[in-house]
Amino acid sequence: MHQIVIVGGGAGGLELATRLGDTLGRTGRAGITLIEKARTHFWKPHLHEIAAGSMDLDVHALDYLAQSHWHHFRFRIGEMVGLDREQRLVHLAPYHDDEGTIVTEARSFHYDTLVLAVGSNTNDFGTPGVAENAIALETTEEADRFHRRLVNAFLRAHAQTTPLRPEQLQVAIVGAGATGVELAAELHNATRDLVSYNLDRIEPDKDIRLHLIEASPRILPALPERISDSAHRMLAQLKVQVHTGARVAEVLPQAVRLASGAIIPAELVVWAAGVKAPAFLSELGLETNAINQLVVTATLQTTRDERIFALGDCAAAPWLGHEGKWVPPRAQAAHQQSSHLVRELARQLQGKPLRPFHYRDFGSLVSLGEYSTVGNLMGNFVGGNMWVEGLFARWMYVSLYKMHQMALHGFWKMALNTVARFISRRTEPHVKLH
User: For residues 432 and 203, which has the higher predicted lDDT (pLDDT)?
Assistant: First the structure.
């Protein structure tokens, strides 16, 4: 039986494994295996809500083992550390639990077709102090760790009898892309919710400071200027202190030092500036670019091995119809590439030639929490380029997550989960308190 191995259980990888399992796996035309180093899946664009405490990880995380049982693929836990292209083997490191006990030994899996969908990591650009003093929201564990530190900071400030130190209750977010902007807006709401739970010695408008730091001349530099300007105005209304044209030179234990020499005190620092693919990809003998992305052809096959495909943030895929441009690292790109490979891998098994991947940009949406959502809808979706804001934009933003859930569960389970969450939210705190 033809063996398709997918490494990486993010949005693209898990959707691909689920849909291939439902088609090729269920009918016995191929064996589908998903390899992932985590036990559960969470939609990465919502990590800022885990960090702020406005979304509960325990409710929204999806168990890979359960998903594999329901959708006819195999889940194998572990981290990919090597590749034998001649023998067509993927090598995994030993997997340890939280106490350091080995759960699975080092092992290898054979593939006939390999799909790498390992996502991306935050790029610290070699900035001193980032690894030691900042949190990068790359995983649910890091987002949850930030939230615990945030709650502890408020409990500490409320209990102490001495005046607040300069850095207390100040949060610095480095990088004003979508993640940084969304986190700043979400934290404004979450911190005020925290104070409302009898932490009345803290005065939100006086004691809490949120700093958003961006090296470019404007926030959301990758998006149209109109979106950037609108988001900037809304953040100003929320009293988020935006620093543009401000390059970070060093992250200190209780502050951020800018290249200008200015010091921004901060009890908590989040690094959300830049992305790069995992470093091990550059050690596999495949072509990579400067940020470790695998260079792929129009069919999403790696340039040096036609049996190996890559999708999502870890792939440098040409944007057909846009000379010299690459498909941007967005959730919608991973979703489209996953849908494309579901069709093309089935065609390949039938001996048919692979067709090229055409990325369609449906625009960008940036959530500012309960306050607003701004963005633009593009392409065939609206027949042009339409500016959206407010409630309709918020609905469109939420629908992106619902589309991901529908790809994993089908319409009825997605709908029932949505109704159940709507009911349960009526009896829960607005922000996670632990």
Answer: 203
For 212-221, what is the mean pLDDT?
94
pTM of the predicted model, to two decimals? Answer: 0.85
3-state secondary structure of 339: helix
Rounded Cα distance between 371 and 76, Å, is 41
DSSP codes of every residue in 355-403: PPP-----EEEEE-TTS-EEEEEEETTTTEEEEEETHHHHHHHHHHHHH
Q: What is the pLDDT of residue 346?
A: 96
The DSSP result for 207-227, as a single string, is: H-EEEEE-SSSSSSTTS-HHH
Q: Which residue reads 């900037």 in tokens? A: 232
Which CATH architecture group holds 2-120+277-349? 3-Layer(bba) Sandwich (3.50)
CA 385, 214, 268, 277: dihedral to nearest 10 degrees? 70
| CATH 3.50.50.60, domain 130-271, yes or no | yes
Q: Which residue has the tokens 């044209």?
A: 245
Determine the pLDDT at residue 371. Answer: 52
CB 104 within 8 A of CB 78: yes
CATH 3.50.50.60 in the chain is located at 2-120+277-349, 130-271
